[in-house]
From TrEMBL:
Domain spans labelled Major facilitator superfamily (MFS) profile: 35-472
Organism per entry: Ignelater luminosus (Cucubano)
InterPro entries assigned: MFS_dom (IPR020846), MFS_sugar_transport-like (IPR005828), MFS_trans_sf (IPR036259), MFS_Trehalose_Transporter (IPR050549), Sugar/inositol_transpt (IPR003663)
Family: Belongs to the major facilitator superfamily. Sugar transporter (TC 2.A.1.1) family. Trehalose transporter subfamily.
Entry protein name: Major facilitator superfamily (MFS) profile domain-containing protein
Keyword Lipid metabolism included in the entry's annotation: no
Keyword check for Acyltransferase: no
GO molecular function, one term: transmembrane transporter activity
């Protein structure tokens, strides 16, 4: 084994010295091709999430408008309450699926969880969509989609953080948003022109690609293998990820082993999240970012974007506006992976919050003027511009970086439970915001809704500056030291 072949090194190196600045310089990197291939394979699941998230925007109008009755598999128009449930059942299902994925990730591994707990249920949900002929089948499909989506947000960021090197961890973890927005762009573009059956069968095909990629490409997380005392497979997994020999991965494997030995025998529980200053601060950061992310209004914007554009009265076809926003969102998602390891997490989060604050304040003002009977024809372009700025701001910071930070700030033995709690809370907020958006918009108008969201964005900026730590380029030991200060 690696440790037995390097007794002299291990006798003089502790976990603290392994975490020092010598570590990156001693690690010779030949290529990261296999690492990026593995990241892309895991992120196919994020693309499927985008398909599920974006589904409501093109298909709710088809189900509730008389002009699309021929394409409606129900043979009748759905009510506004049914439309609200179709939008909010996905986050409701995600609440129930969170702890299942976290438990399975610890018991059977990240790789098997992705295959059996995520890909297969996604395929089942798409098949239910394809053959649904009553509203309850649609409810079931949305609920199953939600249960599975939560698994993606629980397992994939955890896996990406564990397989990445410190120098590119931010880039790899932030890439999840690029794939998710790609899925949303696809459904925004094809949804207005194809039936629910056709788009659902497309989803099944993507699930098949994901399953084959996981089986033939994806290695198990070395950290998970070390947690079950399988050092031989951990070494092989690391060699595959780094495209290196035993000698070249020896130092990194020793570092991973030291991290796991420090946490050996410790089974992370919910109470453990509150036992130390570092874990308490990490959990507060997670829950705080979760609250602000959802109350920035992202769920209503993604679920009901076409309906929002219809209410602007701008004269621009709403489906084209939605496609434009989806395209901008996809292109903007490339910004974060390229800049996050240069500018840092805190700065990009703060810029994201301020961008969302400005855009939603302006959009709220537009809706207020329109609802007050003022002539807004001269600024017909403002709603599209505001939503484009909002999406760019969200995708450049709050969208991907909450998962990046969650994958970085918790020690290995707490990651599964921390992600489960964080994602549970994340989807609980998503359900609440998605469910109350229609009632609030009817009560106080669209202007009041977006002003409310902008207020949360401004408060988020203060939270980021006063409480978030910078994790750029730091390993787990250095991050824990910062959290303990």
């Amino acid at each position: 084994m690696i440790l037995s072949r390097h007794n002299s090194m291990c006798s003089t190196m502790t976990l603290a010295t392994l975490s020092g600045s010598a570590f990156p310089s001693m690690l010779f990197i030949k290529t990261r091709k296999r690492l990026y291939m593995s990241a892309c394979t895991g992120n196919i699941l994020a693309l499927i999430v985008g398909l599920c998230f974006g589904w409501s925007s093109p298909y709710l109008p088809k189900l509730k408008e008389a002009a699309h009755i021929k394409e409606n598999p129900l043979g009748r128009l759905i009510t506004y309450d049914e439309a609200s449930w179709l939008g909010s059942l996905l986050p409701l299902g995600a609440i129930f699926g969170t702890f299942i994925a976290g438990y399975c990730a610890q018991k059977i591994g990240r790789r098997k969880t992705m295959l059996f707990n995520i890909v297969i249920p996604f395929a089942v949900a798409f098949l239910i969509f394809a053959f649904a002929d009553n509203i309850y089948s649609f409810y079931l499909a949305r609920f199953v989609s939600g249960v599975t989506v939560s698994g993606v947000y629980t397992v994939v960021p955890m896996y990406l953080a564990e397989i990445s090197e410190d120098e590119v961890r931010g880039f790899v973890c932030a890439s999840i948003m690029t794939f998710e927005t790609c899925g949303e762009l696809i459904i925004y573009c094809i949804g207005p022109y194809v039936t629910i059956f056709a788009s659902s069968m497309f989803g099944v095909c993507v699930c098949l690609v994901a399953a084959l990629s996981i089986i033939f490409i994806l290695p198990e997380s070395p950290y998970y293998l070390l947690s079950i005392n399988d050092k031989e497979r951990a070494e092989k997994s690391l060699m595959k990820l780094r495209s290196e020999t035993k000698e070249q991965v020896a130092f990194e494997l020793e570092f991973m082993t030291a991290v796991m030995q420090e946490a050996s025998g410790i089974q992370g529980t919910f109470l453990d999240l509150w036992k130390t200053k570092a874990s308490r601060r990490a959990e507060v950061i997670t829950l705080g970012l979760t609250i602000f992310q959802h109350w920035s209004g992202i769920v209503p914007v993604l679920l009901y974007s076409q309906s929002i554009f219809e209410q602007t009265g701008s004269g621009i076809p709403p489906q084209f506006c939605t496609m434009a926003v989806g395209l901008v969102q996809f292109l903007a998602s490339f910004v974060t992976p390229g800049l996050v390891d240069k500018l840092g997490r805190r700065l990009m989060l703060f810029m994201s919050a301020m961008g969302m604050f400005v855009s939603e304040m302006a959009l709220g003002t537009y809706f207020y003027m329109k609802d007050s009977g003022e002539d807004v024809s001269r600024v017909f372009w403002l709603p599209v511009a505001c939503l484009v700025l909002y999406i760019v701001s969200y995708v450049s910071g709050f969208g991907p970086l909450i998962w990046t930070i969650m994958g970085e700030i918790f020690p290995t033995h707490l990651k599964a439970v921390a992600f489960s709690v964080g994602v549970f809370f994340w989807w609980s907020m998503g359900f609440v915001v998605g469910r109350v958006f229609y009632p609030i918009s009817i009560s106080v108008g669209m202007g009041g809704c977006f002003w409310l969201f902008s207020g949360f964005c401004f408060t988020a900026g203060i939270f980021i500056l006063t409480y978030i730590i910078e994790t750029k380029g730091k390993n787990i030991i250095e991050i824990q030291r910062l959290l303990n200060k």
